[in-house]
Amino acid sequence: MLFFVLISSSFMMLLPASKAVEPVRVYVDPSSVVDPPVFFNVSVKLENVLDLAGVEWQLKWDPTVLNAVNITEVMFHEVTPQSDWDNIQRNWLDTDNVIGVARYSYVYTDGVKARENGYLPISGNHTMAIIEFQVTGVGNCTLDFTDSVLGDMNAIPMDHENANGFFSNSVAPPPQPPSPEESADVLVYLDPHQVRNESLGPQTTFSVAVRLDSIANHSGMLYVRFRLSWNSTLLECVNATDVIMHEVTPQNEWDNIELSMEWDNAQGRFYYNGIFWDMQRALSGGYEPFFGNHTIAVITFQVKDFGKCLLHPYDFRAASLPSVSVLLYATIDGYFANTLNGDLNFDNDVNVLDAILLAKSFGTRFLNTNWSEDADTNGDGIVNILDAITLCSCFGHFR
User: Fold this and answer.
1) Do 127 and 87 belong together in one domain?
2) If we measure between CA atoms, which residue out of 369, 364, 363, 388 comes closest to residue 377?
3) 197-202, long-range: CB within 8 Å, 24+ apart, which pairs?
4) Which of 9, 166, 274, 327 satisfies CB 3.0 to 4.6 Å to 245 for a cystine?
5) Residue 259 contacts by C-beta under 8 Å, 6 or more apart in sequence?
6) What is the per-residue pLDDT across 221-270, written as a single tens digit (0 to 9) for each?
7) Sign of the alpha-carbon dihedral angle for 328, 177, 55, 88
8) Alpha-carbon distances of 252 from 23, 122, 339, rounded to whole Å
9) What CATH number is given to the structural domain containing 266?
């Protein structure tokens, strides 16, 4: 028995000790810069990464005390053979000293080529970029990471920690200016905003909710009307269900609802009108006017062909008490596409032309001037490194 105990003990001693998984970190080196010379460098580093496909980050500072003189990319050119540097896709590598931000975003144009040649995915510890600063004022500030995204081989964001840097040669930076206020009373939009699925072929169906958000203080709404348009060669409406009128009204009062929902598939139009037959009865019953955020209706479409189109809400009408004044409104278009994921120019081939189109709208957010629903391949409202990775993973696909 003692023999087996000794053998077992010896065997356990030979087993490697389990190692705790170290967190993935993005950080500034050195972490603290105090009373430096007029010009100094910091490195932006990546630690403990595994199976990385693309990177995006912004580093912010107080522009009243620091200016960025230069930013140099390191990691992608370091891990990639020089003969394949033409496969490195730079989306961002720039600085803006008006707002105090450095931007970095890289991925490979052809992910298949990068994998076959052995430099994708990226793992380990790396210097991503070197930034040269010039001290222009007296103060202190954080070198603050914001909007940092690490994407893995499946274009899924990787968990990671950001370690900010710090600069000081005297006092705290001034506060940031407040954001502007919205001017509209209500917002009309579709949920989900984007229906993008290449498997939604002809005869398949999907549904979207038309939502109403109250974004200003007012005295409630007395009625609701809206219109919705789409490309009739791609989609046709097959069903619609009211939500808001039946949601705000007690069931025993539903006979007081005057509701009209019609659609014209030849023109690609949907019409909704909701009001109460007896307004005084609704007021005394406590369900008129109604307040807050609501789903107006749920609309079901059947797909007719492959392509893309906007789902455009328009001609919204609602009035508020006590003056029965018409409310100002804003609308956000919905979006449908069943083209190949990554095929931004709709030629049924995912190639470098699509990568060029994505680069043109890179960094834009929903409703920005150069925003592109096509480039936002994952529908998260921003064209960033995750969309570039998705395009990279689809590179070479065709229909």
Assistant:
1) yes
2) 388
3) 197/338, 198/338, 198/339, 198/340, 198/341, 199/338, 200/303, 200/338, 201/303, 201/306, 201/338, 202/303, 202/304, 202/305, 202/306
4) 274
5) 242, 245, 273, 274
6) 888 999 999 999 999 999 999 999 999 999 999 999 999 999 999 999 99
7) positive
8) 58, 63, 46
9) 2.60.40.680
